[in-house]
């Protein structure tokens, strides 16, 4: 256990309060989610998986490899957090997908739903592009807010702590950790 703690400290560069989801737990759940998503579409139905950068990049990379349907990948960049731990409440779209959404089955992939502001601002913008279907898949959900539209797929209910790792950052650090920890 001491060795494990030391390895984590070296990889993280500082002390984490605790590990919330281990690499094995995440991998098992992501595989399940890939199956759930595959089952929700007909075998010949194409999906456009839209990753919300940067936080979703590792989750998305693992998830799409577990989806057994024809699919394409594109990304959106929105920022609501700046570099700290508190949401600024504003959402800026810094990059828009090249792909047209019209008539397509779109899945927006988000790392974590916190206040829900990002989704609340983004979904109407995407809906306006007339996709055939639009669903949200979030790895983590803090269940803080009542959303008009809940994500169809959620990996884990998250504790109300500041989480890092597996794509999640604090000031751009810790995204590379293969597990999710609490600062
Ligand atoms: P929301 O708009 O408040 O739901 O926040 C969504 C975004 O804030 C996520 O996509 C994350 O990038 C960031 N975020 C929220 N909570 C955390 C956290 O605990 N750790 C790291 N990033 C977070
Ligand atoms: Mg972030």
Describe the structure.
This protein is of the alpha/beta class and 183 residues long. 26% of the residues lie in helices and 28% in strands. It contains 4 helices and 9 strands; from the N terminus they run αβαβαβββαββββ. The chain has helices at residues 2-12, 23-39, 57-64, 117-127, and strands at residues 18-21, 47-53, 71-79, 92-95, 105-113, 133-141, 153-157, 163-164, 180-182. The strands form 2 sheets. Strands 4-3-2-5-6-7 form a 6-stranded mixed sheet, with helices on both faces. A 3-stranded antiparallel sheet has the order 1-9-8. The structure holds inosinic acid (IMP) and magnesium ion. Inosinic acid binds next to strand 5, helix 4 and strand 8.
Short structural description:
The protein has helices spanning 2-12, 23-39, 57-64, 117-127; strands at residues 18-21, 47-53, 71-79, 92-95, 105-113, 133-141, 153-157, 163-164, 180-182. The protein is an alpha/beta fold.
SSE arrangement:
Layout: H1 2-12, E1 18-21, H2 23-39, E2 47-53, H3 57-64, E3 71-79, E4 92-95, E5 105-113, H4 117-127, E6 133-141, E7 153-157, E8 163-164, E9 180-182
Parallel strand pairs: 2-3, 2-5, 5-6, 6-7
Antiparallel strand pairs: 1-9, 3-4, 8-9
Bound molecules: inosinic acid and magnesium ion.
Magnesium ion binds next to loops.
């Amino acid at each position: 256990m001491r060795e494990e703690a030391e390895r984590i400290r070296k990889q993280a560069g500082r002390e984490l309060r605790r590990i919330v989801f281990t690499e094995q737990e995440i991998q098992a759940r992501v595989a399940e989610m890939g199956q759930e998503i595959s089952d929700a579409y007909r075998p010949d139905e194409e999906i456009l998986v839209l990753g919300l950068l940067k936080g979703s990049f590792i989750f998305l990379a693992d998830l799409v490899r577990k989806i057994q349907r024809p699919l394409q990948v594109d990304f959106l960049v929105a920022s609501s957090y700046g570099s700290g731990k508190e949401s600024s409440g504003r959402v800026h779209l810094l990059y828009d997908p090249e792909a047209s959404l019209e008539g397509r089955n779109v899945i927006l992939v988000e790392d974590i739903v916190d206040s829900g502001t990002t989704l609340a601002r983004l979904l109407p913008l995407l809906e306006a592009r007339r996709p055939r279907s639009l669903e949200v898949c979030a790895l983590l959900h803090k269940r803080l807010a009542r959303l008009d539209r809940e994500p169809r797929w959620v990996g884990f209910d998250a504790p109300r702590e500041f989480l890092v790792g597996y794509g999640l950052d604090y000031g751009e650090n810790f995204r590379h950790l293969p597990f999710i920890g609490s600062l």
